[in-house]
Write a structure and sequence with these properties.
- The chain contains ten helices and ten strands.
- It is an alpha/beta fold and 267 residues long.
- It has a domain of 76 residues.
- It has a six-stranded mixed sheet, sandwiched between helices. A four-stranded antiparallel sheet has the order 2-1-4-5, with helices on one face.
- The structure holds adenosine-5'-triphosphate and magnesium ion.
- Magnesium ion (MG) binds next to helix 1.
Length: 267
């Protein structure tokens, strides 16, 4: 289990990105990080995968601070999905999914593309799980649509049976229908593999629909942690700001319908 203990991050230029965050990501849960731009979501995710070191507090795995662990071993326990589709464009779909197993494959095997047969099977099964059939296996990743590429990224993230999948704005570059489909596939795959997902989302409506738990950040601090149904209009105003006329001021136009939904929920 991954835990944050009073975690803070102050960058060299003095920017306080994360400030005293306590958080436990439970096994199997779909946990969504919400918050306006600059609130610290990516910094929090970066501290789990070891790319960013906290300046105070610690992130731990099963009780041991990550700084005391071999980061290579830790990375085998996590999958990553990014906003920009980080596939290798010239590589086949199958090759991209297999690349998720690179931390567990020797260098010479990976250079020759000689993956053990179990990994080949697993990659094919995962591609089926994200609804990509055999026709897609040998297509170049660059020939797939954005939604299909993000489904390949999901399959790749699960290659080494991760305990946790870190997803930073995984649907930011997709249209609403594809966003919903990709999140459904991510949630379904994580459920079947008993993995946690820690996922930042800008789209509140999608967070309401998919999150088991929401962690809302504001200026690096957690100002709400709980089920999506607990996000009141007042909290949303704190997260996204209130306009000068006293009306809620969503951070982006896409929030507006969700605010209406929430009014109905909290009325
Ligand atoms: N390497 C860095 N050096 C200095 N400041 C940084 C660095 N990385 C991030 N920050 C700052 O830390 C704060 C949090 O940034 P972060 O990227 O975590 O926000 P975010 O919630 O992911 O935003 P977005 O929704 O725009 O992706 C911001 O003020 C950002 O400018
Ligand atoms: Mg970010």
């Amino acid at each position: 289990m991954f835990e944050f203990h009073s975690v803070g991050k102050v960058f060299d230029d003095g920017t306080v990105a994360v400030d005293g965050v306590d958080l436990r990501v439970r096994r199997g849960e779909f946990c969504v990080l919400l918050g306006p731009s600059g609130s610290g979501k990516s910094t929090l995710l970066g501290m789990v995968n070891g790319l960013i070191t906290p300046t105070s507090g610690s992130v731990s795995h099963d009780g041991t601070p990550l700084v005391d662990l071999n980061i290579g071993e830790i990375r085998c326990k996590m999958g990553m999905i990014h906003q920009q589709l980080h596939l290798v464009p010239r590589l086949s779909v199958l090759g991209n999914v297999l690349s998720g197993a690179l931390p567990a494959v020797s260098l010479w095997r990976s250079l020759l593309g000689l993956f053990p047969i179990d990994f080949m099977r697993k990659a094919c099964n995962l591609l089926q799980e994200v609804d990509l059939d055999a026709d897609h296996l040998y297509r170049r990743a660059s020939t797939l649509s954005g939604g299909q590429q993000q489904r390949v990224a999901i399959a790749r993230a699960f290659m080494l049976d991760p305990e946790i999948v870190l997803a930073d704005e995984p649907v930011a570059s997709l249209d609403p229908a594809n966003s919903r489909m990709v999140l459904q596939l991510l949630k379904g795959t994580s459920r079947r593999h008993n993995a946690s997902v820690l996922c930042s989302l800008h789209h509140l409506e999608l967070a309401m629909e998919f999150a088991d738990r929401v962690v809302a950040l504001c200026k690096g601090k957690v100002i709400y942690e709980g089920p999506p149904s607990g996000l009141t209009r007042e909290l949303l105003d704190r997260i996204y700001g209130v306009g000068l006329n006293g009306k809620s001021a969503p951070a982006d136009a896409a929030l507006t319908p969700r605010m209406e939904t929430l009014t109905a929920v909290s009325a």
